[in-house]
Structures are given as C-alpha cells and as structure tokens.
Design goal:
The structure holds 2 protein chains of 2 kinds. Chain A is mainly beta. Chain A has one helix spanning about 35-45, and strands at about 5, 10-15, 20, 50-60, 65-70, 80-85. Chain A has one domain: Folate-binding fold. The longest helix of chain A has 9 residues, at about 35-45. Chain B is globular. In chain B, strand 4 and strand 5 (about 85-90) form a beta hairpin. In chain B, about 35% of the residues are buried. Classes of the chains: A mainly beta, B alpha+beta.
C-alpha cells in the first residue's frame, strides 16, 4: 500500500487516489490542423517507461484535486508530488534523488 | 422544502431516540445520530482574496483556507473540502443558500443544499478513535488530527467526511443517506468490544 503525499492534504492512503496516466502531455493548439497520424500520436501513444515516470493522480476520495507525481514504475516509490501547473521536479543526479516538488 | 411528517433522519426508523441513555456508564463508545440540518456545498474561487472577503461578510466568519480545517461562526461552521470547495453546516431554518445567493450575487459560485441527502453520525468516548482507526486509513493521532480538523476519506469503503469536534474525542461522520444504516451498523459492530451506548444526537 502506497502512502501518497497529496499537495493539498498531505500523506494519505493509496485507496483514496486514482491514477490518471502520463502527465505533461500538451494538447495541440490547433487539433484541426493535425493529420490523423499526429492526432493519434497525441491521443493514444504513451511512453510506458521503466523507471521514473511523471504521472497525473487524482485525490478522488479526498479533496478531488488533480496533481502530478514522479513515480518509479519499477519500485513504485513516489519521489515527489506537485500541484498542477508547477514545474516538474528536477530528476536524478547520480544519487538518483529527485529534487523539488512536494516530496 | 415544506415541513412534512415524512421528513426524518436516515436512521429514524431504527428508533434511536428510544434507545438513547443519559447514563452511558462504562461504555467506551457513544454513538448518536445528529438531527437534520442544512448542509450547503459551496464552491467558489478560493484563490481569490476578494471572493473570500465577500464570503466572510456574507456568513459572518472566514471560510477555512488551510486544508482540512474547520472554522466556526455563531450558529454555523465551514469545513474545508478542497481549495475551492467548502461544506457549510447550520441548523434548519438558517436559510444559508438564500443568504449566500444574496451575498455572492454576481460572482462565480455555486451553493447547493445537501442536507436531505446526508446522515451525520456522532462518535465519541474514550475508544472512539480506536473504532475509527479500524475503519479508515486516516492518521488519527492527535498530533495530526485533532479538534478543528476535518477530512474526506474512505470509511469502511464508503466516501465520508470526518470532523473532530473536541478532545473526548468526539467525531462527526458525514455519509450519504443511502449508506447511513450500513455505516451505523459497521461502527456499532466495530465498537462492540469496547461497549457501545446510544446517546441523544
């Protein structure tokens, strides 16, 4: 069971949260101008990384706010959480430590 | 909402009033159902100083801006539900929705009366914290959750709002009316090892 640090509510149990998939995917400014290929890339293609992954999470049974988390997909360790609109924390020097965010 | 003899609390059919005692004795857990009240869900721009000031003028006290805290006025109180969402609780007849509608007119806000959709269960006594700890994942240690704190969480798999009122400790548990009986029976069962007494709400 993960203890997830909601940027608003502080550490809460995983059962209160819903994972919303990869974060920081920018919606194309003019969807009508895209080819089907480009639109499909935006809609469906995800990184599916092994290791550090930036994700959106929703505190669905708590304050109902969306926020971002930097999570390791191998160990499930959540290195940092940060509010929507905030700059992603700087990742991993050689010590593997993620800096910044609300860790 | 006209007065009606059909209008009753979710747990009224259990006849709790007749089972209530004034002398709980050694019971570790005291349970009650609170009477019907106005519960108004208020949404507005919590990041706007101006909105918060107008809301304060309207209800007579400041809305909480610190997450998971409660502020109180003379006959109502406000629970923080989210950065732009609060729950205002007041006795019936306060007409909170009308008051908010007048005070916040012309601004972006939503005030929704939810009182008839809710049940509020009171849980107090020396073992109240133990009972609650069995059913929800909150850290209930007084250092992190004490009087004046509230939280939305899952209580025995149900979405619930939990607020601590005093050091007894006394808690208020807000759940949907449709799951009120389940919640009551769950808490009563969880509290049975400490002894449960039903008291007036």
């Amino acid at each position: 069971m993960l203890l997830i640090n909601c940027p608003w509510c502080g550490p809460r149990d995983e059962i209160e949260f819903t994972c919303g998939g990869e974060a920081h995917i920018a919606r194309p400014a003019d969807p009508a101008a895209l080819s089907d290929q480009e639109w499909a890339e935006y809609l469906f293609m995800r990184k599916n990384l092994k290791g550090l992954h930036y994700e959106r999470w929703h505190h669905s049974y708590g304050c109902r706010q969306w926020f971002n988390a930097a999570r390791d997909t191998v160990t499930h360790e959540i290195h940092a959480t940060y509010k929507m609109g905030e700059t992603p924390p700087v990742v991993a020097g050689e010590d593997g430590v993620v800096k910044g965010g609300n860790s | 909402m006209a007065d009606s003899y059909f209008r009753q609390t979710a747990l009224a059919p259990l006849g709790l009033a007749a089972k209530a005692t004034d002398a709980p004795g050694e019971a570790g857990v005291l349970m009650s159902e609170h009477p019907l009240a106005e519960h108004v869900n208020l949404r507005g721009d919590g990041a706007s100083v101006e909105f918060l000031q107008v809301a304060r003028t309207t209800i007579g006290y400041a809305l909480p801006t610190e997450p998971n805290t409660v502020t109180e006025g003379t006959n109502s109180r406000a629970l923080w539900l989210g950065p732009h969402e609060w729950l205002l609780v007041a006795p019936l007849g306060t007409a909170l929705v009308a008051t908010l509608g007048r005070g916040l007119a012309g601004r972006a806000f939503a005030a929704t009366e939810l009182g008839d959709a809710r049940a509020v269960i009171g849980l107090s006594g020396p073992n109240a914290r133990d009972v609650l700890a069995k059913s929800c994942p909150l850290d209930l240690n007084p250092k992190s959750f004490g009087p004046g704190r509230c939280a939305q969480t899952k209580l025995s798999r149900i979405a619930a709002i939990i607020a601590q009122r005093d050091d007894a400790p006394s808690y208020e548990i807000y759940v949907a009316r449709s799951v009120a009986r389940y919640t009551w029976r769950w808490l009563e069962d969880a509290g049975s090892e400490y002894g449960v007494a039903i008291v007036a709400g």
